[in-house]
Amino acid sequence: MADNSMKTLKFRRHLAEEIIAGSKTVTWRLFDDKDLKVGDKIELLYWETKEKFADAEIIEVREKRLEDIEEEDFEGHEKFENREEMLETYKKYCGDRVNWDTVVKIVKFKLLRT
Known about the structure:
By secondary structure, this protein is an alpha+beta fold. The chain is 18% helix and 36% strand. The chain has helices at residues 13-21, 83-94, and strands at residues 7-11, 26-30, 41-46, 52-65, 103-113. Strands 1-3-4-5-2 form a five-stranded mixed β-sheet. The protein starts with 6 loop residues before the first strand and ends with a strand.
């Protein structure tokens, strides 16, 4: 069971597997309601079951508009076929309020334990 005092981030199972394998070290969060910041210790949960799969620490946070995402922002993050797929993916996650002006919080983390 998750510790309610610790911040949590949920990931779809295929992304959790990439995190555990070490290839995914960055997450993009839109409409951050958790006030994620450097130094935060976070529990990583499977989106589907809410079961914890790892503990991590946030080591870098940047913000930019979705429209301003560049190739370097994909380092440690899953790729998309094109910019339209990127926009549609985040609309699927967050709804139709997502557009090119939506601010993305780019959160880099390191695993503490799995």
